[in-house]
Sequence to fold (628 residues):
Amino acid sequence: MIDPTIAWSVGVLIALLLAVCGVAAWRRRTQLESVITDTKLKLEHVQRQFERFVPADVVEKLTEGRGDYTPSRRRVTMLFADLRGFTALADRLDPSVTLKILNGYFERMNEAIVRHHGHVNELIGDGLLALFGAFEPNPWQGRDAVLAALEMRAALARYNDELRAQSLPEIRFGVGIHTGEVVAGVIGAGQLNKFSVTGDPINVASRVEGLTRDHKVDLLITDEVRSALDPRFRLRAMPAAEVRGKREPIVTYHVEGIEAPADR
Amino acid sequence: MAQLLNEIPWEMPLLPPAGDTAWEAIVKKRVGQVSEVDRRVASNPWIRQVCLDITSFRPFAMPMRLVSIGAMVTAQENSCRYCYGANRAFLKILGYSEAFIGRIERDMYLAELDEKDRAFIAFCRNLARSRPRPAKSDRDALVALGFSPLAVQEIALLIACGCFFNRIGVLIASPPEQGFERFANGPIGRLIGLIGPLTRKLMALKQQGPAGEVAPMTELTRGPFGAIVGTLFGLPSAILARQALDAAFASPILPKVTKALMFAVAARTLECRASEAEAARVLAEEGFAPAEIESALTTLDSPRLSRRDARLLPWVRNTVYYQTGRLQGETKALAAEIGDQVLLEAIGTAALANAIIRLAMLLE
Fold:
């Protein structure tokens, strides 16, 4: 027969032990929950920053552990914009002034591009590459790119007024737009990876931008882009021109403007 | 990823309260209180009716618990500060803890929920966001997890209703129900939350009462977008979609062709062939040739539209995927051009198009 005092003592001891274990488990759980929440908050922050550069669906796939983001072929419209003679200008200006002019320019161009459903994918020196239809399907990508370019033209004219008023030199740009099927995906190696597109149409868009110098105009589009436009866009055909890397000469059109909607 | 409540930018209201006391009395009688949205859409008969019908939505095949959670998640994905705040506060009143709600809105692993519930929440998010757009396979996946086909239809309808109401909230920039939010988060709200489990049980009991009548298939499929509404056959609330479409297309404030083109533009933005075909059917009945429809969709304009109505096609496209602040700013500029009455009709049409197309996407 066990002494009741001992039985009670053992019982109380076990109850105390269980209570201590319970409290410890509860505290551990709370700590773990707090760690998970903190980690999630950090991940959310990274994800939000990441979504500024990469399509949301790609971010979702990458952050959900499905890191094997499969590249895909997408029909994308590419807009290349490059400043004319800016390198020579930069050599003459104070570096802080150069950057101020350049950043002001990029800010205005980005605004016009985003308003028309595009994304600036790359800034290369004083040039930029914007993509339309790369981040999400966009059946109006050609039209959007041209409307963005027209708005960029207007924004640049206003910016030059501001620069002139501050006795700063004016700037000019050339814009080339082309549509084609590219491979879209996370491109790069080691620490330097980014969502981008690759393929021959990118080269064509770049060459078309280069042709703006030869044709002495500011905005050129290819036949592929022209086919997406309605007659309200005022276009002027340019002579077909040979470009590096292409067997056939490229036919381009200068976009002069867009007619205001007719009174109905 | 979806924004949290305090991250959503929100403009000043675009429309003032209509001051329709007779309508407000009807709303109060039916749902107990008049919301900011009810007040601001009261001048448009069909939009105010649809809003009221959605507010009093009674699930048939889904538990009320999931419906309440799904409504908050949908509002969060649609970045509607108004609906998100109100639904969040409602969950508090139902007794859900701040920690639980926080985990849902952060889309964290929820030990309290089973696999089916988590799949339900993911489906709500994906269909509301539609980027990338869901398809029939997503619907089939829910059925494979054990949801009945009718329950999946009801989930889709629930999300479609959310997409409608959320867009109304966003596009009119309805002021949040701050009084209700404060109440739910205050001491009295917390006290009520303590009896939340009982409240939920009472709501579940009420749900078990006699369901409304199921409309015959012929009634659902007649009229615009009949093939899509027909997929809701078997749900008492299916008639809600039919009545909304009929009333919207019959409303004289915007011409029928303008509305059909707005639906078609939204359908093309979401790459939904089924709803684009339905919109084309409506346009064909109005004398549009296929080439005319294609031209209107390519150029986002049509010579058959007035200059005012042509302005709505590029705008409706922006109501599909949007950043709240930017869209509200754009809608404000539109309001200055077309006036409050036409703006409200356009907002209702855009909201309805987004809702109906979300139902249709699950057919393909």
About this structure: Chain B has two domains: 5-211, 218-361. The interface with chain A takes residues 1, 99, 102, 106, 108-109, 131-132, 268-269, 271, 295, 297-301, 303, 305-307, 310, 317, 321 of chain B (CB under 8 Å). The mean pLDDT of chain B is 93.
